[in-house]
From TrEMBL:
Residue span(s) of domain Protein kinase: 10-270
Alphabetized PROSITE patterns for the sequence: PROTEIN_KINASE_DOM (PS50011)
One MF term in the entry's GO annotations: ATP binding
Domain of life according to the entry: Bacteria
Protein name (Swiss-Prot/TrEMBL): non-specific serine/threonine protein kinase
PANTHER family: SERINE/THREONINE-PROTEIN KINASE NEK, SERINE_THREONINE-PROTEIN KINASE NEK2
Lineage: Bacteria, Bacillati, Bacillota, Erysipelotrichia, Erysipelotrichales
EC code(s) of this entry: 2.7.11.1
Keywords noted in UniProt: ATP-binding, Kinase, Nucleotide-binding, Transferase
InterPro entries assigned: Kinase-like_dom_sf (IPR011009), NEK_Ser/Thr_kinase (IPR050660), Prot_kinase_dom (IPR000719)
Family matches, as Gene3D superfamilies: Transferase(Phosphotransferase) domain 1
Amino acid sequence: MTKLELISRFRSIEKVKKGGQKTVYKAVTFDGKMVALKIIGNATDQRVQQEISLVQSLSMSCVPQIIESGLVTDESVGEDALYIIEQYIDGTSLRDWINGKNIANLKFACTLLEALLSAEIELEKNNVLHRDINPNNIILGTNNTVYLIDFGLAKIIGGSSLTQTAAAHGPFTPGYAPHEQFANIKLAQDVRTDLFQIGITIYECCTGSNPFVKPNETVYQIMSRTMTMTAPLLNLPGDTKGQFAQFINMLMAKNQSQRPDTATDAMRYLNAIKSTLEMEG
């Protein structure tokens, strides 16, 4: 199938964004169903192929489902490309929400945290690490559902790895990955790696910025800051005893042993401190 033949299967199609070798479209089928169409230029990209397989194995309401995937020939360059047709999510990325100068109050932060921990509990049951939880990969759905997207860095715990063991660094997003991830310490990566990223994400929602990322810094400077800097405690109205702030810093702990052992433990802790939180709006 050619790219033109693929596109002709839709009544309408609109480019949403393009980044690297991936182009994302919002498309409507001839029976009126809205879907997301993704075309990835490198058909041999093992991480994309792994992502497709992994997402298809999950059955989670907060993860957009893949409807179809395969290969198409891009006539303009004479090369094959991967295509993915998946569930369309009507909503706003958390990154766009933050870039809109929004700041989370305690209720928003607590609700988002609960949604992310619920998703992490399900991922943990499936032995899956997302490893790239950050505002770019979270969608605030118009149906009040929080969606987790982009499993390009995800891995099955105990499964084979696409990264060379001897590599100095594993794949990561600077400012969100803890030391065990960017240092490529494979055996140390577990649910606590994702919990670190969830903590950073909530912190950024409440302050408007990532505590480990400063303008014009290099990746190595961000890595150093992530390893050595302890973020100041949040100061949120309604956090009457400061326990929510302490919990977020617990999630962001440098030492894995200081983070909750499981997502279920983290959720249990959140539920235990709710009685101290005064949430409005």
